[in-house]
Amino acid sequence: MVLSVSERTFTEEVLKSPIPVLVNFEAPWCGLCRVIHPLLLQFQAQCGDEIKLVGVNADQNFKLSTTYRLKSLPTLLLIENGTIRHRLECFRSREDLRLALEEIKASYSNYPKIYKSSKTADLEYRLA
Question: What percent of the chain has pLDDT over 70?
Answer without folding.
Answer: 84
